[in-house]
């Protein structure tokens, strides 16, 4: 029988692209579809997806759960679980349009939820940890159900197919957000199901990634000490958990997180000014097992911003561009020029150098 | 009556080549060779030979070789020659059989049943000649609170750690069991390599305090040579609870090896056997260990990491978990093939478990319990090559201890006769004429060569895997595959079988 993503490691090549309007102006998902489609050959039709931020302003105080169900009984079981743990403000099937090339689609539902206050208080957990654990519980315990998006005022849309087809399938032209990311996947094995597509979403973090990290099992075995379970066995999943652990649980900044996962070489750190040298040395000594080696370039989406980061040898491409308030990042410059032919500046960040674009007014994200 | 026992090895001399220069005679402390003035030729008494190859190496005309004797008792798969001889020996003497160096028996070597991965197509191998390839690491606790100063900068809340430029240290070998010159070679090599050597339980000779920043001092059950300056001199302190070659028993340095200098360093009488007890008599349980760990930390102002060294035994995962909660910064595990200057043969050959299995289980247990950051894990006994180092780190070790390999670099030929104190190579002896055969200037250079060569090989293997920091190799078990292993062995090692995909 064909194995599903999660039962094996599935190395993938990829295309990634992202856009953010720092003024907070919202754009439809159409631009991402146009951007990714020029990188068609970087995908092979076995996975594509999008993450949009600021897309649910009317439900911005609720966690938006997007779920795949294999069948109605998985849905019934999940809804019963959600009902016991959350107040469900609104739920519906996610609107899709029929596309000839998109087949074998699961049931796709969306729930806007907020934790039941009694349950939350009894759990002695902070709200986001409670939500994360509930989402994880569904993924691990309920067969045929998979939460693939669980943040506030953001959403992941993904599936098996070319990304431009997936975008049209989900009618992304109808959604408007201040930031978008997109992923086209080139897996070496068939993922078997839709959950294997990217972005990987965890609370409001979403990660799109191009590469194959060589540190995978060192990272996985370390991060699983802290309650994470890498059920998909993908790089993207473990990278997302590492970022969540360092930022949400340990309180590092994104720049510091970048210095952990794409740390400068010791020899490079040696040449830096004293205060920088001390901080970077400290971070490497504190979290050596979260260093990621091997090729990767990721775009991290989070409430109010996007960060791109590549491995320290820059074994995967990443290009950034800016035009006024709008910032772009993509595996190839062509993907940026497809939607912005006349950028103010275009540049390639150095390996291991994070580039962060945030809303001028982060309050607007919420 | 004493039963005559035929020598296991025979000295064979090519008469056409021998020029009777008598160098073999002068070089053999076991008095194997003699000159027959009547015939003008050399003779050899194979019965005295320990097969240390000193004469073979120094013979200017290469006239000598040592061969396995073909004399045999009636072939018996159950009672082999050695087993029978040992019975004779014990019937002759009534004594416990003694041996040295590591277990030589034909048990499986799991290092040789693991294969390393390499990158092809989907991610690139990295060329260590063109790109940085980091083998530097830090040993110690990594459990930290994130605290910031007024400017938002991270404060250094890390406990003391050891910085290693290579993932290899020299394991504990005491002054007494090995010579002054051997210690000097190890100390100087550790300094040049940016790593550490270990005093063993024999104290620290006053001449070697200057190598303190590359020295790990040991506190063992005999407490030989332990005092305030000794602890202060070191970079780290190791509590020796056990040794892979002889788990469950103490140590025994014969009086012949206790010279004036050794006596002063160990703070014990000259010429009298030095016996270290099997247990530490202040440690009968895990909570007692905690008290010793903190006593040593108090004594050194919490400035030095404390290592707890145990022998790999059946329940080592649970023991390690206890140690990780005892305040120790580093756990050193010594496998059953680890070397020794003297051990009862039956213990050495029958007690303990392979380091590969112990390491895999300990690393996994510490992770399951979420306490892997409480300690670093160092393994030894026996790590024979750079490939063993790579496999150990991929299984979960932070670094490796090497003892036997280091002694081989100094000239040791593994004759396993250290307990006789007559090492012809000047290593495991205190006889001045023998000690001076080991030139520390040459010896230290050979140690540096060995570790440098291994480090290059480690870098090549890491580069092949597309891993450019040893930190990303640690515990990266997907980089290993088993070959010729049972399902149980694979599951104990926590690796997949060769041919199984990621």
Provide a descriptive summary of the structure in words.
The complex is a heterodimer of chains A (366) and B (502). Chain A is α+β, with helices and mostly antiparallel strands. Chain A has a domain at 12-55 and 153-212 and 294-365: Aminohydrolase, N-terminal nucleophile (Ntn) domain (Glutamine Phosphoribosylpyrophosphate, subunit 1, domain 1), CATH 3.60.20. In chain A, 29% of the residues lie in helices and 28% in strands. Chain A is built from 11 helices and 18 strands. In chain A, the strands form 4 sheets. Chain A has a 7-stranded antiparallel β-sheet with strand order 8-3-10-1-16-15-17. Chain B folds into 2 domains: 9-95, Alpha-Beta Plaits, CATH 3.30.70; 137-244 and 297-497, TIM Barrel. Chain B has helices at 23-27, 54-58, 81-93, 180-193, 228-233, 260-266, 286-299, 316-324, 345-350, 355-368, 386-395, 404-409, 432-435, 440-465, 487-493, and strands at 9-13, 33-36, 41-44, 64-68, 98-99, 114-116, 137-139, 162-164, 168-170, 197-198, 215-219, 236-240, 251-253, 274-276, 306-311, 330-334, 343-344, 376-380, 399-402, 480-482, 496-497. The A-B interface holds A 8-11, 13, 188, 211-219, 221-222, 224-226, 233, 250-252, 256, 263, 265-268, 275, 278-279, 282-289, 291-295, 312-313, 315 and B 119, 122-124, 126, 131-132, 134, 136-138, 142, 144, 146, 153-154, 156, 158, 161, 367, 370, 372-373, 396, 465-469, 471-479, 501-502.
| Largest sheet: spatial strand order of chain B | 9-19-18-16-15-12-11-10
Query: Most extensive chain contact?
Result: A-B, 49 and 40 residues
* CATH homology group of the largest domain in chain B: Aldolase class I
Which consecutive residue ranges of chain B, at least 5 long each, have pLDDT under 50? none
Q: What's the CATH architecture name of the largest domain in chain B?
A: Alpha-Beta Barrel
Structural class of chain A: alpha+beta
SS elements, strand count of chain B: 21
Please indicate the percent range of residues of chain A in DSSP E strands (runs of 2 or more).
25-35%
């Amino acid at each position: 029988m064909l194995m599903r993503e999660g039962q094996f490691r599935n190395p993938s090549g990829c295309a990634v692209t992202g856009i953010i309007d720092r003024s907070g102006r919202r754009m439809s998902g159409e631009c991402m579809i146009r951007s990714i489609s020029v990188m068609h050959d970087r995908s092979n039709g076995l996975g594509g997806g999008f993450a949009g931020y600021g897309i649910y302003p009317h439900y911005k105080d609720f966690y938006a759960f997007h779920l795949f169900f294999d069948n109605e009984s998985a849905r019934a079981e999940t809804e019963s679980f959600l009902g016991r743990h959350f107040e469900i403000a609104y739920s519906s099937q996610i609107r899709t349009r029929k596309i000839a090339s998109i087949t074998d689609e699961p049931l796709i539902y969306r729930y806007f939820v907020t934790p039941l206050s009694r349950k939350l208080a009894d759990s002695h957990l902070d709200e986001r940890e409670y939500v994360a654990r509930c989402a994880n519980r569904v993924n691990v315990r309920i067969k045929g159900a998979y939460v693939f998006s669980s943040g506030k005022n953001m959403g992941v849309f993904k599936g098996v197919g070319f990304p431009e087809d997936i975008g049209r399938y989900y009618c992304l032209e109808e959604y408007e957000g201040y930031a978008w990311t997109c992923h086209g996947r080139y897996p070496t094995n068939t993922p078997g199901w839709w959950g294997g597509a990217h972005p990987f979403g965890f609370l409001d973090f979403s990660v799109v990634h191009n590469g194959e990290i060589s540190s995978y099992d060192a990272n996985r075995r370390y991060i699983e000490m802290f309650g994470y379970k890498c059920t998909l066995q993908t790089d993207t999943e473990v990278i997302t958990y590492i970022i969540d652990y360092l930022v949400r649980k340990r309180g590092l900044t994104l720049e510091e997180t970048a210095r952990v996962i794409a740390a400068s070489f010791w020899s490079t750190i040696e040449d830096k000014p004293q205060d920088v040298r001390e901080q970077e040395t400290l971070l490497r000594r504190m979290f050596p097992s979260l260093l990621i080696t091997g090729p990767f370039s990721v775009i991290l989406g989070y409430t109010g911003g996007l960060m791109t980061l590549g491995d320290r040898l820059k074994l995967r491409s990443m290009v950034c561009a800016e035009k006024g308030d709008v910032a772009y990042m993509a595996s190839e410059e062509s993907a940026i020029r497809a939607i912005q032919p006349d950028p103010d500046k275009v540049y390639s960040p150095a390996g291991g150098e994070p580039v962060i674009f945030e809303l001028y007014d982060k309050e607007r994200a919420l | 009556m004493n039963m005559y026992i035929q020598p296991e090895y025979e000295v064979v001399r090519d008469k056409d080549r021998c020029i009777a220069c008598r160098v073999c005679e002068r070089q053999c402390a076991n008095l194997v060779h003699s000159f027959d003035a009547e015939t003008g030729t050399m003779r050899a008494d194979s019965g005295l030979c320990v097969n240390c190859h000193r004469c073979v190496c120094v013979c200017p005309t290469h006239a000598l070789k040592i061969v396995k004797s073909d004399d045999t008792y009636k072939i018996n798969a159950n009672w082999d020659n050695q087993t029978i001889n040992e019975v004779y020996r014990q019937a002759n003497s009534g004594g416990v059989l003694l041996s040295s160096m590591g277990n030589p028996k034909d048990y499986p070597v799991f290092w040789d049943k693991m294969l390393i991965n390499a990158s092809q197509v989907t991610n690139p191998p990295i060329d260590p000649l063109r790109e940085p390839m980091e083998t530097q690491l830090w040993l110690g606790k990594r459990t930290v609170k994130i605290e910031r100063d007024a400017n938002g900068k991270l404060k250094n809340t890390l406990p003391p750690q050891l910085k290693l430029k290579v993932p290899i240290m020299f394991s504990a070998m005491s002054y007494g069991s090995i010579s002054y010159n051997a210690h000097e070679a190890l100390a100087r090599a550790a300094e040049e390599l940016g790593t550490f050597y270990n005093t063993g339980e024999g104290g620290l000779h006053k001449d070697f305090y200057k190598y303190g920043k590359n020295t790990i001092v040991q506190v063992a059950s005999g407490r030989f040579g332990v005092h305030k300056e000794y602890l202060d001199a070191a970079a780290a302190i190791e509590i020796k609870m056990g040794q892979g070659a002889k788990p469950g028993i103490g140590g025994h340095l014969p009086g012949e090896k206790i010279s004036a200098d050794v006596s002063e360093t160990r703070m014990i009488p000259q010429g009298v056997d030095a016996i270290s007890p099997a247990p530490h008599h202040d440690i009968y349980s895990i909570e007692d260990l905690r008290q010793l760990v903190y006593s040593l930390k108090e004594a050194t102002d919490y400035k030095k990491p404390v290592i707890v060294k145990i022998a790999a035994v059946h329940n080592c995962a649970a023991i390690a978990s206890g140690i990780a909660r005892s305040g120790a910064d580093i756990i050193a595990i010594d496998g059953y093939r680890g070397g020794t200057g003297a051990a009862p043969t039956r213990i050495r050959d029958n007690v303990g478990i392979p380091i590969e299995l112990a390491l895999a289980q300990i690393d996994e247990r510490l992770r399951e319990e979420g306490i892997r950051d409480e300690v670093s894990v160092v393994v030894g006994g026996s790590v024979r090559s750079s490939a063993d180092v790579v496999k150990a780190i991929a299984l979960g070790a932070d670094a490796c201890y090497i003892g036997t390999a280091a002694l081989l670099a100094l000239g040791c030929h593994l004759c396993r006769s250290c307990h006789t104190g007559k090492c012809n190579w000047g290593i495991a002896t205190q006889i001045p004429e023998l000690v001076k055969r080991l030139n520390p200037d040459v010896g230290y250079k050979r140690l540096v060569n060995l570790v440098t060569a291994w480090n290059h090989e480690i870098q090549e293997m890491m580069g092949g895997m597309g891993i450019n920091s040893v930190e990303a190799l640690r515990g990266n078990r997907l980089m290993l595959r088993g070959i010729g292993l049972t399902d149980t062995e694979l599951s104990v090692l926590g690796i997949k079988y060769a041919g199984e995909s990621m």
